[in-house]
Write a structure and sequence with these properties.
Oligomer: single chain
Distance between the termini: 28 Å
Number of domains: 1
CATH topology: Porin
Number of helices: 2
Helix content: 10-25%
Strand order of the largest sheet: 1-2-3-4-5-7-8-12
Order of helices and strands: HEHEEEEEEEEEEE
Shape: elongated
Low-confidence stretches: 1-21
CATH architecture: Beta Barrel
CATH class: Mainly Beta
Mean pLDDT: 88
Structural class: mainly beta
Length: 222
């Protein structure tokens, strides 16, 4: 249901542009970043198995927004998120690890604070959803936890809020962004022999990202 809500919400936000203009400026952001996390249930399971503590959750993705009024821009962000934990003591005879793979979509709104030819600053907030897979391979446990919805829908709520600054010229800007994510997953489908006490993967935390922003790409509705 989350993905359907995203689509409906985006159509509602697009309404003013559809009614008032056929062409409008689009902003695209390509980014990579990292979230500092402390998934206690995960670490309590994997550390006794000889794996390192999981402390970061990385992401790479694309965001597209457009203005509906001078002080508000709305759009969508897609992120591919991933985290991993390897063996504390590397052994060439084994390949033990814990890995998180996550697809996240965020419906967001940005409020520009400063917008000049060379400098940009804004704040934003968004709501979305994720599909998540956790895989564990070790001498004692081997299995998978999965939380996803069928046909490309998103199964778990996900939120983010923060601020960004950009520096550049002629529509191209390098930007940095910081914020906080709420990203907690439970209710997994289980397979294999993962300890039953591991039922939640909490990837919430503060994040930082950098990337390339292209502002003012001509967009249009037909």
């Amino acid at each position: 249901m989350l993905k359907r809500q995203f689509a409906c919400g985006l159509l509602l936000l697009m309404g003013p542009c559809l009614a008032l203009a056929k062409e409008f400026p689009v902003q695209a952001r390509f980014f990579l970043g990292s979230t500092g996390v402390d998934p206690q249930n995960v670490n309590q399971t994997i550390e006794p198995l000889g794996l390192k503590k999981m402390e970061t959750h990385n992401q790479i993705g694309l965001e597209v927004t457009y203005p509906i009024v001078n002080f508000l821009e709305v759009g969508l962000r897609y992120s591919k998120k991933f985290a991993s934990s390897d063996e504390k003591d590397t052994d060439l005879m084994t390949d033990y690890s814990a890995k998180v793979d996550q697809d996240a979509v965020l419906l967001l709104a940005r409020v520009p604070i400063v917008k000049t030819d060379i400098f940009r600053a804004d704040v934003f907030a968004g709501f979305g959803g994720t599909n998540t897979t956790f895989k564990l391979t070790s001498a004692g446990q081997n299995g998978e936890l999965k939380k996803s919805a069928a046909e490309g829908w998103f199964s778990t709520p996900y939120t983010a809020a923060g601020a960004s600054v950009g520096l550049g010229y002629n529509k191209i800007y390098f930007f940095a962004e910081g914020g906080v994510e709420t990203n907690k997953v439970d209710g997994f489908e289980r397979s294999g022999s993962i300890n039953g006490s591991l039922s939640t993967v909490d990837l919430s935390g503060s994040y930082f990202m950098i990337g390339l922003m292209i502002d003012g790409i001509p967009g249009s509705f037909k």
